[in-house]
Amino acid sequence: MLGAVFLILILFLITQGLFSSLFKKHAFFSKELMNILFFYHFFFWVVYYLYALSNPSDSLAYFDRPQNEAKSWFEFFGTGTTFIDFLSYPFINFLGFNYEMIMAFFAWLGYLGFVYAYLFFRENIPIKITVFNRFDLLTLILFFPNMHFWTASLGKGAPIFLGLMLFAYAIKNTKSRLIALIIGSILIYYIRPHVFMFVAVGTVLGYMSGKEKISFWKKALIYISLIGGLVLVQDTILGVAGLEGSENLVEGFEDFSEDRSASLGTSGSGVSMASYPLPLKFFTFWFRPLFFDAPGILGLITSVENLMYLLLFFKILKKDFIKFLIKSNVIVKMSLVVFLLSSFAMTFVMSNLGIIMRQKSMVMYFAFFVIYYYLAQKKYDKILRLKKLKSKRDMEMRSENIVTE
């Protein structure tokens, strides 16, 4: 454990250097908030470590495989689970990281995901929004506990969250953030190829329908890169569901979903979602467990967070939300498509509340971004209306003064 504590101190110092670089690029960057978030996130590293000592945890298998399997480092290179082994191999076998240290390193990767999530939100939405009468919405989003719990350990959760947030941050200015875009794309694709497909489709649709005037060459570069990439890796993506070479993808996906759903529904926290209508599948994936079906103490804590998700969702159930979406920019539409496509796919294969709690942490930030942007747009429009009204009144008063004189 002392080695892990020492490593965390080193990572903290490295993080301060990153903060200095980011502050030069973004005047709004708050080092104080991000440092608080650092210690908050590593509190969940401790929580997850204690949880893993007495509960089944994939992190133990991820730690054992690179040491015990007779493979060289690059023999682990591939998509899915093996890519996590590839990432951890040099730290475990070359640098001698023990279990606590590699857990801390991956927790740091998860923390960097929150740093780039902060940049993603704050750069695109400079307006402060308060919810529930007193809470700053961005701060609330950044400190949701379930998001930190599942990104504070050795596994897929931390690096793919980092990849998604790097991609989301970089897509606003691809030319100057190309390295971040490439690293984010690699992490997403090699950890979860199907999620890369959702991100690519969401980005293309966003650029096709966004309100911004984007140069033809920039659009062409995005389309060729992402669509070309999807064509090249289609077999790997379909291979996730065993559909490579399938003659009927729809039927094949239905069979895969039924088998996967049945296997995940056999545990104590299983839910029979196969017979649910689509709206109820979405509700289960987004907002359950709630208090009535929470699996254990972790489930109860998650239920509080899910209730907040639900209350935030109610804020977009307005007549003008569809109009907002139609007029929204590339990043809003990209976020919405990524969130909906991921939700749609996962609702057909998830039948275990524990798995649902972990899997949805990948994509919920895209939903939060859409909600946040909608509320900020409404506030901005209100400010503009008040300014116009004030300007009109000032003009009327000046006119009255001229007439009186």
TrEMBL record:
Name used for this protein in its record: Uncharacterized protein
Chain segments annotated as transmembrane: 33-52, 101-121, 142-171, 177-208, 220-243, 290-314, 335-356, 362-380
Residue ranges the record marks as coiled coil: none
Annotated source species: Gillisia limnaea (strain DSM 15749 / LMG 21470 / R-8282)
Keywords, comma-separated and alphabetical: Membrane, Transmembrane, Transmembrane helix
